[in-house]
Structures are given as C-alpha cells and as structure tokens.
Amino acid sequence: MPLIVNLRHLEEHNVTLCGELPVGELDMETGDEMIQVAGPLQYNLEVQKLEGSLLVRGALRLTLGCRCVRCLKPFTHGLELKAWTCHLPLEGEDRVAVLNDGVDLTPFVREDMLLEFPQHPLCKPDCGGLKTKTGTAQKNADDIAPSAWAELDKLKL
C-alpha cells in the first residue's frame, strides 16, 4: 500500500506516519546495475496541514545493495534523511493530486531518496580497485604498444 495521508484526519490534528514501505510499492528504478534497493523504506513522518498546503517532516531510511565501481565487491550502503521536509500545495497550479481525500506521498519520497543515491558507489573511500597481475605478459604488452607520450618525448623542439 502506498504512503497515503488522509486529509480529513488532518483537520483535527497533525498525523504521525511510522512504518515500512515495501520495495515493490516504492517502485524505484535505479537504472544502474551497481545499485539495487535491498530493503524496505523505513519512515517516521509528521504531517501538518497549513493554510492551503501540507508540510511533511521526518526521517527516511533505505538500505541499498551496491557493487563497488573500483573492485566490484558487493556491499550494503545505508541512506538516511534525518531531517526530511516536503511542502505540498493543495491549491493553485502546482497542487498535488487528491484522490478520495488522500494524498500519496510515495512519489515525493521516491524522488528525494533517488537524489541521495551515490553516483559512484565505493566499498571504502580508499578502495584500490582490482588487483592487476604483473608478469611477462604485462611487460610484453607494454613493449608492443608504445605510449603516445614516449613518441612525443622523442621530438626535439
């Protein structure tokens, strides 16, 4: 079930939403083979109705299954937005869609979590990358393909 807040409940008092949103409901396409959503989104939110808008504040947590872009080792990465805030207008051109007195917060949560994804996931900041094998095969490959810099060094200017 998506993360929906009922506007009728907000007329009397603020609403607190705590729980988990399953990965399937989050519908988060990463578009990156190095990053996958590994667990449900955990949320603890307070929703307040202001004059003509909603103010949503709280914390969001998500666990990602990543693969290091340097060494290709799998690791988990936790995303946490401790002070997430979202202002949603209920009136005007930019108003949010209201269906059966409910506003779906899922698209706004999804967008802000996607913006927090690591661009180049690393298992550790000083990851050395893949280990290269040194030997005669490596030396022979260097002899066959001379570097462009070596050719430029031969120029006498």
Describe the biggest sheet? Answer: 5 strands, antiparallel
Summed over residues and divided by their number, the pLDDT gives a mean of: 85
Helix content: 10-25%
| Shape field | elongated
- The class by helix and strand makeup works out as alpha+beta
Number of strands: 7
How far apart the termini lie comes to 72 Å
- The sequence of SSEs as H and E is EHEHEEEEEHHH
Number of helices: 5
Looking at this protein, list some descriptive labels.
157 residues, five-stranded antiparallel β-sheet
In words, what does this structure look like?
It contains five helices and seven strands. By secondary structure, the protein is an alpha+beta fold. Strand 5 and strand 6 form a beta hairpin. The longest helix is centred in the last third of the chain and has 10 residues, at 106-115. It is elongated, with a radius of gyration of 25 Å.
SSE topology sketch:
Blueprint: E1 4-6, H1 7-10, E2 15-21, H2 23-26, E3 35-37, E4 41-50, E5 53-67, E6 74-89, E7 102-104, H3 106-115, H4 136-144, H5 148-153
Antiparallel strand pairs: 1-7, 2-4, 3-5, 4-5, 5-6
Short account of what is shown:
The protein has 157 residues and is an alpha+beta fold.
